[in-house]
Automatic annotation (TrEMBL):
Record keywords: Transferase
Keyword Transferase in annotation: yes
One example GO MF annotation: maleylacetoacetate isomerase activity
KW Nuclease (keyword) present: no
Protein name: Glutathione S-transferase
InterPro entries: Glutathione-S-Trfase_C_sf (IPR036282), Glutathione_S-Trfase_N (IPR004045), Thioredoxin-like_sf (IPR036249)
UniProt source species: Pararhodobacter oceanensis
Residues in GST N-terminal domain copies: 16-82
Biological process (GO), any one: glutathione metabolic process
Pfam families per UniProt: GST_N_2
Signal peptide: none
Length: 294
């Protein structure tokens, strides 16, 4: 997180809440800081938490520094882009910016079959979800949009409109769905999915999703599963005791109480969540990796 401390972002379960992922990436991927309030979907506390973020009725919800609350990730994207033009949420080039806005708007309003059949679940990877015709039609439209955007913007890197932008933020949960449900897409689309899984902000969110609360039964599907293929994760193991190479948690600066072995060395953290999110994908966390001796 970066320089701004006046925002408060309310998010749902990291493993399942695709719109929360978008809201969080709008801050994390562009270096804008915010305080986080977390709530759990489908639990009584959800409505109670959102009551403090009126008039929002869903996550993400953002309290602005002035105290007003806005919800809906597209509204949040536009407001942050207006307040932080230097952060580069939208492309600078007018044509690329127009293409990126089209992509975000269509993602925001469409692809209901894909969303319904392939709910985002960053804790499980399926071998086959038997996608119906409507899901295959959504995938074909995605391929068409992505190819069109690259052609219009002349993008030769991993992202759709040049540098990483709001358009890519909005398709991050789609990448999770494609990879997690073994959906049939072209090699070009697979490469775009792989770019998201290699993107450090996305990797950090996915690592936290592995250890952020219990499974939600509403997202259970009785489909055959397999191990995730993207990305390969550095092995680690929690330890009951230290000593560790560090005396202070790399995230909070507080004294260490929990320990993790990574690459033959022991790192210390201030609580179980800091330890476990690091263990889920150590290389997603530069603060922790910087503590390791070469």
């Amino acid at each position: 997180m970066g320089y701004e401390t006046g925002y408060e972002l309310c998010i749902g379960d990291r493993a399942y809440s695709s719109w929360s992922l978008r809201g969080w990436l709008l801050f994390e991927a562009f270096g804008i800081g915010c305080a986080l309030t977390r709530t759990r979907l489908y639990e009584p506390g959800f409505a109670q938490t959102l009551a403090a973020f009126a008039p929002a009725r869903s996550v993400p919800a953002l309290r602005l520094p002035e105290g007003a609350v806005i919800s809906d990730s597209l509204a949040i994207a536009e407001e942050l882009a207006s307040r932080h033009p230097e952060a580069g949420l939208w492309p600078k080039d007018p044509k690329a910016r127009a293409v990126a806005r089209h992509l975000a708007a269509e993602m925001h309003a469409s692809f209901t079959a894909l969303r319904s059949h392939c709910a985002m679940n960053l804790r499980v990877c399926y071998t086959d979800c038997a996608p119906p015709a409507a899901v295959l039609a959504d995938l074909a439209r995605l391929e068409e949009l992505w190819a069109w955007a690259r052609a219009e913007c002349g993008s030769v890197g991993p992202w759709l409109c040049g540098d990483y932008s709001v358009a890519d933020v909005f398709f991050a949960p789609v990448a999770a769905r494609i990879a997690g449900h073994a959906l049939p897409v072209s090699p070009a689309a697979q490469a775009y999915v792989a770019a998201h899984f290699a993107h450090l902000p996305f990797r950090r969110w996915r690592a936290m999703a592995q250890v952020d609360g219990a499974d939600q039964p509403a997202y259970r599907r009785d489909w055959p599963t397999r191990d995730w293929a993207l990305p390969e994760v550095l092995p680690s193991a929690p330890l009951a005791t230290g000593p560790s190479v560090n005396a202070a948690c790399p995230y909070s600066g507080l004294p260490v109480t929990h320990f993790l072995r990574v690459n033959g060395q022991v790192l210390g953290f201030c609580n179980a969540f800091c330890r476990d999110k690091t263990g889920a994908d150590p290389e997603a966390w530069p603060q922790a990796m910087a503590l390791l001796e070469p």
